[in-house]
Amino acid sequence: MTSSTTFQPVLESIAEEIERTPGRGRPADYIPALAACDPRSFGMAVAEPDGTVYGVGEWRRPFSAQSITKVFTLALVLAREGDALWEHVGREPSGNPFNSLVQLEYENGIPRNPFINAGALVVTDRLHTRTGDASGELLAFLRAESGNQDLTFDKEVAASESAHGDRNAALGHFMASYENIDNPVPVLLDQYFRQCSITASCADLALATAFLARHGIRADGTRLLTLSQAKQINAIMLTCGTYDAAGDFAYRVGLPGKSGVGGGIIAVVPGRCTLCVWSPGLDERGNSVAGVAALDRFTTLTGLSVF
Fold this sequence. Notes:
alpha+beta; globular; three-stranded antiparallel beta sheet
C-alpha cells in the first residue's frame, strides 16, 4: 500500500463485503442496553498519526466502549507507575474466559494480565489510588485524545453492569484478601462500571488510540509513554486483547487489538495508523464477528500488519 489516500476505498470495499456476510453473532444479552442493538449494524474508522480520520458505515455513532477502555487505563497507570505496576498484575495470556476466577487462587491474587476483568480491576484500583477519580481521569483523557468533549458515561449501562456485577465483586474481594486492592471494593466497582459504560464512536476511539501508533506521544505532542512502554502495551494487546481468542486474532488480523462486549475492537499499526470497528453481534468468546472479519480484510487488502 503506497498512499494513505487509499484508506477510504479500502474501507468502502470492506463495508460492502461485510454487508453481504450472513451470520453476525448475537449482542451481549446480560446488559439490556446492549441486547437491544442490531447485530447487523457496522462502522469502521482509520486514524492516521496526524489526526486525519477516514470512516465508513456508522463510524460516528456512539456505542458502549466496555473493555476497550482497559487499554487507556493501563496506559494512564503505566505512565505513572512504570514497572512497579507489574508487581500487581501479570503480562501473560490467560487461556480462560475474561471473567474467570480460576487462576487467581493458585497465583496468589495476581491476575494473569491487565485485560481480563481481574487484571483490569487492579489497574483501575491503582489509577483511583493515584488520582482519586479513575473514571473521571479516563474520561478526560479520552475527550482530549479524541477531540470530542461530548464523550460521557452511560448511566443506564453502568447501572445494568452493577446489577449483574456479582462476578466482578467476587474478583475484587478475592484480590483484596491477598492485599492486591487498595480501595474499598464497592468504590472500585463503581469506578470500574462507570469506566466500562463510556460511549464513543469508531472515530473517537481510533483517534484516542493513536498515541500507541505515535509510540507514546499524545495528540497535543506531549509524551505519555516511553517508547518501551508503548511497545509493551501493543504487545499485551496482541497476546491478551481478545481474551481466549487472542491466538486466532493474531493469526487472522496480525495487529495488536482490544475488543469489548459492546461490539467494538480497536487495533494499532505502529507508526502508521489506528483502527476502530464496531458491530454488536458477538461470537461465543465475546468478540465482534463482523469486527474481526473487517480487520482481517483490512490487513489482507493493505498488507499492513506487525508481521
